[in-house]
Amino acid sequence: xxxxxxxxxxxxxxxxxxxxxxxxLVAHETGAATSYALETAQDRGLMFVRPGDAVYEGQCIGMxxxxxxxxxxxxxxxxxxxxxxxxxxxxxxxxxxxxxxxxDALEYINDDEQVEVTPxxxxxxxxxxxxxxxxxxxxx
Length: 140
Description:
Elements: E1 24-27, E2 31-32, H1 35-41, E3 45-47, E4 54-55, E5 59-64, E6 70-72, H2 102-108, E7 113-117, E8 122-126
Parallel strand pairs: 1-6
Antiparallel strand pairs: 1-5, 2-4, 3-5, 5-8, 7-8
């Protein structure tokens, strides 16, 4: 079959589209991401946000290193009590977060996720209305 675009032919679907095996790291709270919280969160997977970025509940802020999604709080601040403690403030060594364009985000998402496109950002969020195979809501 010849198309208007050239000599490429259409064919039947070759099989299921493979989804990623890793889950997502999902923001638990709305606020600004802190370096203190991101330092502990980066042990759980690859991050998509930097310190100071605005995040909201349900936003995918990283790729979990294991299967399944994990809700984490990246807005948590360090407690300011006991200022004379031996554990002084240490400079945080954060890995560079992965920046995604529109193509990368569309390739990354699973069935229960959505891509938000604004003039300044491309974000991924969990679909709050996603329904699983059993008819129940997935993302509460």
